[in-house]
Amino acid sequence: MKLNGLATDLAAKGLSLPQDFVTFQTTENLYGSLDEVSVTGCWTDLSAPLSSPVEPDAFLVRFFRDQQDCVIWYLYLRPMSEAFVVYSDLDYEIEYEARRDGEETQTDLEDAEEQRAAILWCAPSFEEFANRFWLENRLWHAVNDGELPVLEPRLQDYLNHYASPGAPV
Hints:
Structural class: alpha+beta
Oligomer: single chain
Order of helices and strands: HHHEEEEEHHEHH
Distance between the termini: 40 Å
Number of helices: 7
């Protein structure tokens, strides 16, 4: 299983996968649910641990991408710290492979400022990311499939939260 190999690779670096991510990836009715609900053809795609180009001893693990690679989501793992989710338009696995093979890359991996601009914060945890992604994609389906008046309660609660005055945009 790819997840076991990934966990072993991370353990050798003194890191581990967050439990919410492991639970999601190993629970039959959860695994693949983001792929199924995605309105933009996103799919699960795990990478090996990739060195963070902006922080020593930190690693990225690609876990999800859209069909055109406009957005690629990563777990950001640091020693002695909670994992969080970031995104980029760069596939760092391809970038590192190209650099290793002496090929031209899309970005200067040595330019920390450029890399900080390319890696953007998304969510404080995998669970938060997955929940928002699932809800927002279900809402898109409800709006576009004409189901809006009969939303399931958790979708309606999510809409109500953001429709209230002063709610974050």
